[in-house]
Amino acid sequence: MAKKKTAEKALNLDSILFNCRDYLRAARNSGSFFEKRDMMLTLVFLRFIGEKYEDGIEALRQKLIKQGLNPDDENIRAAFFDDASFTDGTYNLPPESRWSTIINTPATKMNVALDTALARLEEEDPQLKGCFIKGTFTTRNLAGNDMKKIVDEVNKISHKTFGEEKDLIGRVYEYFLKEFAVNSTKEEGEFYTPHDAVRLIAEMIEPYDGTLYDPCCGSGGMFIQSAALVKSKQGNLNGINVYGQEKDPTTYRLAKMNLALRGISHNLGPTNDSSFTHDLHKGLYFNYIMANPPFNLKGWYDSELKNDARWADYETPPDGNANYAWILHMLYHLKPSDGVAGFLLANGALNDEDTVNIRKKLIENDKVEAIIVLPRELFITTDISVTLWILNQNKKGGRYHDRTLRNREHEILFMDLRTWTENPVKGESKKKVRLDEKQIERATAIYHTWQSEGTDGTKYEVPELYRSVGIEEIERNGWALTPSKYIEFIDHDLEIDYEKEMTRIRKEMQDIMKQEKKSQQMLEDAFKGIGYGIE
């Protein structure tokens, strides 16, 4: 019994995915890393959507029993189960797509069964169109026993077992990014946004109703975490509409799977594409934007973008770095009257020399509301220092959700959270920290208090943490947005009583000299005693 308990305790998501990765590496015909990843993510999706269906059916059974009906009665089954409907976004899966069908399929028929399950899903629901690559499993045609071992391993992944994971599909995606460093370098590539960073953005800008947009939505993690926050605050998702775009085809499919699994209605455009060269939501304006664009992205520019409307009022961003192209793209899509955006960028964007004119105009036009430097160790897939930017189309004040905001024109709040590293994450290959709930609440409270009626922005500061700064001081600093230029950092050496310290040091030196003289005299006396002198 003791051994069994130990084994159960040792079961975790990473160990399961590690086993799957090893099975795929050893299997013949498993293909490239990308093909392995596609298979794994698709399997996990089938597992999750199947488990959600089973939970929905069981809940329906219990509801019928409470109503005095027999769920096993043939007529009851025909009326309630053959074409079941759910209010929480759960899919009524055709028999071929149910996990119970897949897990009980013989090994020799597994590849065909999996592709059949995917095909039937696409037939049943238009939102799942484009989620899957046709022939994902039969094209690779792994040996039956190999495929069966992987399916059995995936069967261990359950929301019941790993309920603490807020976004399990995203977590699986993060695992593969971390282990294989797909397309990621220190400067550009795919970065899975940590849950705590998303939570911080969502808590600050409060995307509770209206439209939410992410121009580089990745696996949909921003939407998943925001939806969780909306549900915790308001109980349902009916008031929020999700829009997004993603360039990478695999990640686009993953985002559609992720959102479908959660029952979140969405518009990610008809296909994957670049937000810069083919803006799929051109002309649309959103209440909220949340994003984590690829840092310092190169190769984004096309000559046709030179006079693009998105930066017509500013200037064309440098073609060697997309940071300010992302900023202006998001600003363009913000609802002009009161849109709010929260997004992450590499720290270099705070003071780049080749973007100073754009930055100056953004500040003069009063679009920048807050700049928050985050702990470097928040991200697994990059060690670049990261800043949270908040843009706001309305800094004049008024009602915002349940709060009354003051006029904050020509003020920017700077916050520095780099020292908030007291919550290490164990079991990672590199140093990793997280922001806990209390830290997120504290940072959010600093921001919301600064916004609120009754706060004096000219006196709003705590050394080494935050400070409200007027536009005149920012101009004097060459339009730099680096928090350390504005937040007071105390020189703790100044707290030392130098006179007292020097007296102590001098006394110690005198004591040492006395001891040395004493030792020297003792040595001389010893040599004299035996008839030798010391020259």
Strand order of the largest sheet: 3-2-1-4-5-7-6-10-12-11
- The count of helical stretches stands at 16
Q: What is the number of strand segments? A: 12
Give the DSSP E fraction (strand runs of 2 or more residues). 5-15%
Mean pLDDT: 83
Straight-line distance between termini = 80 Å
Cα-atom radius of gyration = 30 Å
Q: What is the 3D shape?
A: globular
Helix content: 40-55%
Spell out the helices and strands N to C: HHHHHHHHHEHEHEEHEHEEEEEHEEHH
For the largest beta-sheet, the strand count, sense and barrel status come to: 10 strands, mixed
Uncertain stretches: 1-10, 180-190, 492-496
Q: Look at the helices and sheets and give the structural class.
A: alpha/beta
Give the helices and strands, then pairings:
Elements: H1 2-10, H2 13-26, H3 33-66, H4 74-80, H5 99-103, H6 110-124, H7 144-154, H8 168-180, H9 195-205, E1 210-214, H10 221-234, E2 240-244, H11 249-262, E3 266-267, E4 288-291, H12 323-333, E5 340-346, H13 356-364, E6 368-373, E7 386-392, E8 398-400, E9 403-405, E10 411-416, H14 437-451, E11 461-462, E12 466-470, H15 471-476, H16 498-529
Parallel strand pairs: 1-2, 1-4, 2-3, 4-5, 6-10
Antiparallel strand pairs: 5-7, 6-7, 8-9, 10-12, 11-12
Helix pairs in contact: 2-7, 3-8, 3-11, 9-10, 9-14
